[in-house]
Every structure is written in C-alpha cells, then in structure tokens.
C-alpha cells in the first residue's frame, strides 16, 4: 500500500483528478488526452 501511494503521488494522479473534477467539453477532453499521451511517450 505504501508503494502504491508513493507511485500515485509521484505520477500526480490525485492532483490531476482534483484539477479536472468539473465537466469538460468533448473537444477539450480529447485535446488533454492527446497531450497526456504525448507527454507519457
């Protein structure tokens, strides 16, 4: 559990979720998804 929490914090998953906790338009959602994919690649 400790390792999982560390990995989640390092990846910034929770912060990203809180930032996008509101409704996004489909076009904006697609744009963010492609940017994240590009960043991970």
SSE layout and pairings?
Layout: H1 2-11, H2 13-19, H3 26-40
Structure, described:
78% of the residues lie in helices and 0% in strands. The termini are far apart. With 41 residues, it is mainly α. The model has no long low-confidence stretch (mean pLDDT 80). The radius of gyration is 12 Å and the shape is flat. It has three helices and no strands.
Task: Give me a quick take on this structure.
By secondary structure, this protein is mainly α. It has 3 helices and no strands.
Feature tags:
41 residues; mainly alpha; flat
Cα-to-Cα separation, first versus last residue? 27 Å
What is the C-alpha radius of gyration, as a whole number of Å?
Answer: 12 Å
Q: What ranges have pLDDT less than 50 throughout 5 or more consecutive residues? A: none
Q: What is the beta-strand fraction?
A: under 5%
Number of alpha- plus pi-helical segments: 3
């Amino acid at each position: 559990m400790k390792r999982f929490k560390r990995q989640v914090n390092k990846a910034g998953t929770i912060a990203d979720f809180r930032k996008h906790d509101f409704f996004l338009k489909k076009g904006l959602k697609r744009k963010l998804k492609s940017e994240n994919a590009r960043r991970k690649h």
